[in-house]
Amino acid sequence: MFHIPLSSLPAQFGDIDIYLFDQLLKGRIQRGMKLLDAGCGAGRNLHYLLQAGVKVYGADLSAEAIDKVRNLASELAPNLPARNFVVADLDALPFEDAQFDVVLCSAVLHFARSEEHFNGIVRELWRVLKPGGMLFARFSTTIGLEGKLQQVEGRFYRMSHGPVWFLADEKLVVELEKELGFARLEPLKTVLVEQERTMTTWVVRKVV
């Protein structure tokens, strides 16, 4: 019987978010799909997808990060055009409406500069997503830590490790779902990290 060595897993999957890996196991990301990683960084969630025949695109504010993800793509998926990966603010994506089967936005939304910026990003992710397409987002929220965080102003909180983050609450998430026409593929799942922060996974389908 053939066994794949455990030591080969990093070469196959890189540093993929375990919650995104769960979506792969559920068959929601398939070969040939067009996928945007919004806030892709250097491509930590793209290592496997680039090798699996997914038509990967990426956007990030950092030109250095985009250079790195282009280099990664040139090694793992040399047929993908370098122009698939762009420097852009996520509230002004340079892509056409309804272009992607899947949009990822992992560990990004809590860096929004204002509530307007947060909402603008989510609306852009909706705009470029095809009807029936999946949005996978993971971001820090107040869910599970209500009243326990150091509030600076509005929805901005000082985190225990120093920086000030924009933290959505469940009410804001629900309002955006209703406004934009998202149906949850899964319940909101929130992980508490040592009483210091929470990370919420939001997996929804565009229905209008």
From TrEMBL:
Family annotation (SUPFAM superfamilies): S-adenosyl-L-methionine-dependent methyltransferases (SSF53335)
Record domain Methyltransferase type: where: 36-136
PANTHER family: METHYLTRANSFERASE (PTHR43464), UBIQUINONE BIOSYNTHESIS O-METHYLTRANSFERASE, MITOCHONDRIAL (PTHR43464:SF19)
Keywords, sorted A to Z: Methyltransferase, S-adenosyl-L-methionine, Transferase
Record keyword Lyase present: no
GO biological process: methylation
InterPro entries: Methyltransf_11, SAM-dependent_MTases_sf
Pfam families from the UniProt entry: Methyltransf_11
UniProt keyword Lipoprotein, yes or no: no
Record's protein name: Methyltransferase domain-containing protein
Taxonomic superkingdom: Bacteria
GO molecular function annotation: S-adenosylmethionine-dependent methyltransferase activity
